[in-house]
Amino acid sequence: MSFDSGRRSSFKKMLVGGATLGTLSSYNPKEFMPADLKGNINHGVCHWCFRGYSLEDFCVEVKKIGIKGVDLIGPSGWETLKKHGLDSSMCNGAEISLTEGFGEVKYHDQLVENYTKMIPLVAEAGYKNLICFSGNRRGMDDETGLQNCLTGLKRIMPIAEKHGVMIQMELLNSKINHKDYLCDKSAFGVELCKRLDSPNFKLLFDIYHMQIDEGDLIRNITDYHQYFGHYHTAGNPGRNELGDDQEINYPAVMRAIVATGFKGYVSHEFIPKNEDKMASLAQGVQICDV
Questions:
Q1: E strand or H helix that includes residue 187
Q2: Which stretch of DSSP H or E encloses residue 229?
Q3: Which of the 8 DSSP states describes residue 130?
Q4: Strands (DSSP E) along 77-128, which ranges?
């Protein structure tokens, strides 16, 4: 990876991708962050990855780094986000689980009930994005899975369109982390977007997951960017920090995202290995701030 001279200076202290990050006992963001981020990337983060931080404390810390939104927060956490001026960048709370989703008809009634209740709440709170999942394949071929997802999603999209809420299905790898997951390739998700043909349905392109299941990240982002409404990061292999000890060239990927004109969120969803988790997050923000 390449960084400008100012970043190289600050990263001498952090040793990007190195073990000494974990020795930083008193993290001061001013020591590691430039005075201003470039503004080309809207940085978000997933709270669940940073175990040990209450949502309240987490909000205080991530704002110092330049984070604008927190992903995967439901209604119970929205008041805390608002208190700290942070966006609920990808709401959750309507899904059943990662494995039980729109790909199986038997879950449709429950999902429709859940999303019918949640979509207006998201809109009333002033938020825009609500996550959904395909669930597992359980022996289905792609065509059956597509048709099932289409049938279920068609029941909630008029509500999403009415309230101005974007429903986003996450692309997850089925090789390592989510065995048997149905929507595990860009091609599947893009085809679903085309068939559904709703301005309020997009894909959450998880860069880590798609590196595992399909690679060719920059080409796919460039070719299909109009179907991607949100991005997640993590280092591969391991789903840890974004330093130079993992294989994804995040600055290049971020430049490709910026080149598409994307104005949504890139949210960090890596699990820090290092003791000072906020230093790891600051590192990830710097690496991706192109």
A1: helix 186-196
A2: strand 228-233
A3: E
A4: 87-91
SS3 183: coil
Is 156 within 8 Å of 116 (Cβ atoms)? yes
Contact (Cβ atoms closer than 8 angstroms) between residue 266 and residue 15? no
For residue range 166-204, what is the model confidence (pLDDT) as tens digits? 999 999 999 999 999 999 999 999 999 999 999 999 999
CA distances from 175 to 135, 148, 211, 277 (A): 15, 22, 11, 27
Range 30-39 burial, b when 16+ CB lie within 10 A, else e: eebbeeebee
Three-state secondary structure call for residue 113: helix
Domain housing 145:
36-288
Q: Please check whether residue 142 lies inside any domain of the structure.
A: yes
Secondary structure E strands in 92-207: 129-132, 166-170, 201-206
Domain contains 11: no
- Structure token digits, residue 94: 């309507």
Closest-CA residue to 190 (of 164, 157, 233, 226)? 226
Cα 15 from Cα 54, distance rounded (Å): 28
Q: Write out pLDDT tens, residues 10-31.
A: 333 333 333 333 333 344 555 6
Q: Please report, for residues 8, 23, 24, 132, the alpha-carbon distance to residue 15 in angstroms, rounded to integers and kept in the order given.
A: 9, 11, 11, 37
- Please count the structural domains in the chain: 1
Rounded CA separation 284/274 (Å): 13
Closest CA to 8 of 42, 38, 34: 34
